[in-house]
Please model this.
Amino acid sequence: MSPQLQTRVGLRRTRFLIPLLLVAALVAVFVLDKTFFPPPMSAFQDRREMMDTWVTVTVYDRSPKKAEAAIDAAFSRMAQVEHEASIFDPQAEAYRLNEQERLENPSDDLWEIIAAAISDYSITDGTFDITVEPLLDLWRYKEGADVQFWELDPQTQQEQIAQAMTLLGADRIQMITSPDKSIILEPGMKITLGGIAKGYAVDRGIEVLRRQGIEHALIDAGGDIGAFGGKPNGEKWELALRNPKDQNSSLVTFAITDGAIATSGNYERFFDPAAEVGHIMDPRTGYSSHASSSASVYAASCTQADALATAVFVLGPRDGISLVNSLDGVEALIVGYEDPQSIFKSSGIDTYIDQEKGGQ
Model:
């Protein structure tokens, strides 16, 4: 090949290689930029109505597509729990268990919820009891009834309450493991999972977010809250505890990085128009509990926090704090009933309270 031809071939090769080198350089710059200067974490949030409340899922991530997919997956998982644990949906397992008093081959979710509830019944000396449904059914508004239960004379009320209380006791639920799993209720018994299923659903939603690669998230299901990772800037998740007597003010602000906080209170939901019969029943008396205005519990799981918040609310400040102080990894704050400004704390709850934002 002549020198002139070699020169022309070399020039053509050079003209061909230069664009390739430029593209490679741009790709390298893009990769290095993403590696050493990634896009900032942004907050993504969705709020949906489910489990008889509003549920909000908040996550931080760099990718909107990833965040939105993770949030959708968390809501789908929680909806699955709601479907299995509802006592009002004829297609739900819990509904069928109440109707048939026996359920063969229950889902893992329902099995785990009821197993946890039985354990909590023992831990709380019966103040958390999922078999309280016959009592709740007495107090609920009856469409078309001439007289509602709360309007009955005290003696008639007491007679019916005494009869309903013969059906209580979560320790009477049978959980058979062999040859197949089955759950059995005694004749007349019925369960309600309103005091534990939301917490369990939050835990399952949190699991999904972790599996989707989310590193910072919080789920709030009407006061049952699970969180992990704090915020990307190192700040903690802040959760204001409402003043029972003033919905526009808060008593304290909880601050957590990981774990769960659940609050039970009788200041929003009532059976009667006079707002005297709250929705949280004391299984020991058959009447609405007036031992506390609200009770907040911190625990590692929202399932545990949810159930214990109900029990602590029923137990009241003295016995509730005594119970919590006996449990590892659990803390509580209880607001008094007669004086809602009176706050009672477990030994370590201040660890999870922001003292600069209303801590008491």
Notes: Confidence is low (pLDDT under 50) at residues 29-33. The radius of gyration is 28 Å. The chain has eight helices and 13 strands. Residues 335 and 343 are 5 Å apart (CA to CA).
